[in-house]
Write a structure and sequence with these properties.
The protein is an alpha+beta fold. It is built from 2 helices and 7 strands, in the order ααβββββββ. The protein folds into 2 domains: about 50 residues; about 70 residues, Immunoglobulin-like (Sandwich), CATH 2.60.40.1180.
Length: about 160
């Protein structure tokens, strides 16, 4: 129920009821004047609500997706670009190691997506620079901790 609508309607009803109770017809002009005043204030209240909604700034730009996103489409190599060679190996049930070999270097991802540690020999000298690490206790490790990720780049040459 819309409050100003029923409130002004109730006040109108009370004004008319009081005017009917009066024995004299001289009351009706005052009742109409009171009803006009109530209607005016109800209109002002509704207009203020209308302006508050209309003056609210909005944006035409759609926001970024929240949560999981599913993408469809087709990827194509650019003409003349070398194709990276990718290989991967499973490290137990919950971990994996992925290696992408480019003409200019190697990108390596090591991740454990499980709740238990996974034995792994750790990074060697040919892995290169560690770009990112999550939940790894130190640069050298022999067990991949639970919920950990590392990204390494070797042999990259600056452009």
């Amino acid at each position: 129920m819309h409050q100003p609508g029923w409130l002004s309607g109730a006040i109108h009803f009370i004004i008319v009821a009081i005017a009917f109770q009066a024995e004299s017809g001289e009351v009706w002009p005052y009742a109409l004047l009171a009803m006009s005043a109530v209607s005016f204030f109800a209109w002002v209240a509704n207009y203020r609500r209308y302006r508050a909604i209309q003056d609210l700034p909005t944006s035409k730009v759609a926001s970024a997706a929240q949560g999981y996103v599913e993408l469809f489409g087709r990827a194509e190599l650019l003409a003349g670009e070398p194709v990276p060679v990718a290989s991967w190996k499973a490290l137990g049930d919950t971990a994996l190691e992925v290696v992408w070999r480019f003409p200019g270097g190697t990108l390596r991802l090591v991740a454990n997506l499980g709740a238990a540690g996974v034995p792994h020999e750790g990074p060697s000298a040919d892995w290169g620079l560690r770009l990112y690490a999550l939940a790894l206790p130190s640069p050298v490790w022999s067990t991949l901790p639970p919920w950990s990720v590392a990204l390494y780049l070797a042999g990259a040459r600056p452009r």
